[in-house]
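README: folding subset

This subset contains proteins for which both the sequence and a predicted structure token string are available. Records are stored as plain text. Below is the entry for Endonuclease/exonuclease/phosphatase domain-containing protein (215 residues), shown exactly as it appears on disk.
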Amino acid sequence: MKLISWNVRGLGRPRTVRRLQHWLRDVNPTVIFFIETKLQSDKMEKVRRKCGYPNGIDVGARGRSGGLCLAWRDDCHVSLRSFSDRHIDVLITKDSDGSRWRCTGFYGAPEEQNRGESWNLLRQLDDLSEVPWLVIGDFNELLFSFEKMGGLLRSQRQMDAFRMALDDCSLSDIGYQGRWFTWEKGKFESTNIRERLDRGGLRMRLGGLCSRILL
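--- output ---
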């Protein structure tokens, strides 16, 4: 099963949707989590269906910011556990073998003053169940200062609070595939800023012990 988390800019433009359609046909993920769609739920549903995903949960944007969508193919059954403008939490059953796992699409608050609420939400979602649990999305925060290039230095207090939340949930970083930085702005070297804000976390049972991994 292939799962992708993606912050796609410009979903309200037909040209972007056409490019997304072609890309998804080539990659063919079973589950995809869209972050910051900036669309109301009815418009996001239309985009999702155009891309070949009739099944999904769409959380509308607030004005011109936010918006989430979790979409999936027909070869799995998805039960909604909870959702908000910061997360979509579901239980997924694979039709081929009946295996179950939990998936939480997560969107950390962009505003520094609201980030503590995001970490408390993450703690609340950790129900210590034995079902494998994947948390994936945009946390809008760094673990370490080297995860940012350009611009002002990130506050050590902010990073410590993020690491504490992950420690409370027994999540640990195991690396990445692809580009190191997942967010970028500024076209010129003097103004360019790059950060690693997107991650994914997995909890599974190993030899009778509960092991959790953060990608």
